[in-house]
Amino acid sequence: MTVPAIEAAGRHRLGSPGLRRVDLALFAAGLATFMALYCPQALLPELSRGFQVSPARASLLVSLATGALAIAIIPVSSLSERYGRTRIMLVSSVTAALIGLLLPLCPSFPALAALRAVQGVALAGVPAVAMAYLADEVHPASLGGAMGRYVAGTGLGGLLGRVIPGTLIDLAGWRWALAATTLLALGCTALFCALLPPSRFFRPARIDHRALLGHLADPGMRRLYLIAFLLMAGMVTVYNFLSYRLLAAPFHLPQAVVGLIAVTYLGGSFGSARAGLLADRTGPRPVLIGSLLLAAAGLALTLPASLPLIGAGLLVFTVAFFAAHAVAGGWVGLRATSARAQASALYLCAYYLGSSIGGSAGGVAYERAHWTGAGAYVLALLALAVAAGVTLDLNGRLVGKLRRGEGGPWRRRR
Predict the structure, then answer these.
(1) For 107-140, what is each residue's pLDDT tens digit?
(2) Which positions fall inside the Major facilitator superfamily (MFS) profile domain (predicted)?
(3) What is the spatial distance between Cα 196 and Cα 87, in angstroms, rounded to a whole number?
(4) Which residues have CB under 8 Å from 342's CB, separation 6+?
C-alpha cells in the first residue's frame, strides 16, 4: 500500500468519533466567525438613520470587513502552511472575538468602519484554513459531507448574526444588539478552542508563493474562483438591501420583523449539508449547476410586491446559494493536490471580494432602480456563474479539454 493510501485510510470517516468532534468544532468556529462578520447587516437601516449615511455607504460596514478579510486570507493561508492549521485558526478566532467587544463603543461611523476593517483581518484565519484542514484530516469519500456541515455552521452563524441584533435593536438599540451578538460569538469561540482536534496529517512546508500562480494557471480553478465571486456578490446584495425594501412602502414592516428574514439561513444550512453528500455520490458539476439555476428561480420570486412570494423566494435562493457554495468549495479541495490552504484561500479571496465589491455595486443598483434593479443585477451575476460552471468537468478542468482526450485525476481518485 502506498503512503498516500495509508494516510487516506487513517483519516476521519463518516460516523467516526474523530469526525464528529471535527464537525462540532468547525461548526462552532463557523458560528463565531460569521456571527461576527455579518452582525451589522440587519442593522444597516438603523445605522443609516443614526449616522445620517446613505444605504450604499452604510453597507461599507459589511463590505470593509469582507474586503479586509479577502486581502488577509491569502497571506494567512500561507502562514498556515508553515506554522500549522490549528494554531492559525485558534489565534484568529480569539482575536476577532475580542475586537468585536469594542464595536458597541464606537462614537462615530468612521470609527465603526475602521474597526470593522480591522476585525475583518482578524477573522481571516478560520475561513482561510478550515477547508484545507478538512482536506488534510478527512477521508476523501467523506470530505463533501464534512465540508457541507462546516458550511452549515457558517450559514447558521450568518443567521444568528442577523436575527439576534435585528430582534434586539427595537428593545435596546444597535449598541446593545451588537454587544449581545459578540458575547454569543465569544462563547462559540471558547467551544471551538476546547474541541478542535490537533492536525494529524499536516506537514509543515516552506512558504512558496509560486503555488498561488500554479492554482491561478489552472483554468478550472479560475472558473471556480469566478463562481465564488459572483455567488457572494449576489448573496450580499440580497441581504443588504432587501431590508430597506421591506421597511419602505408598501410593506412598512417593523425592524424586528425584517430582522427575521435571516431565518431562511436555516434552510441554507440544510441545503449545504445535503448538497455536499449528493456531490460525494454524483460528482459536483450537476449539483453546482442545479443549485445556481435554483437560486435564479428563487430570486425571480422576490421581484413582485408580495410578502409570501418574497419569503418563499428568499428561502429558495438561500438554500441554493449555500448548496452551490458548499459544492464549489469542496471541489477546490479535491482539485488541489498540493498547497490546499492556498487553493482554498484563493477561492475565499474571490468569495469575499465578491461580497465587498459586488455587494457595494448592488447598492448602486438598488439606489438607482430599487429592488427591480438589484434583482436584475443578481440575476445577471447568476447567469455568468452558470456559464462558468457548464464548462467545468469533474476535475475542474475545462470540458473542451476533456473532449480533446485530456484525462484528469477525478476518476483515478474515485
Answers:
(1) 999 999 999 999 999 999 898 788 778 888 888 8
(2) 18-399
(3) 10
(4) 74, 77, 78, 81, 211, 212, 215
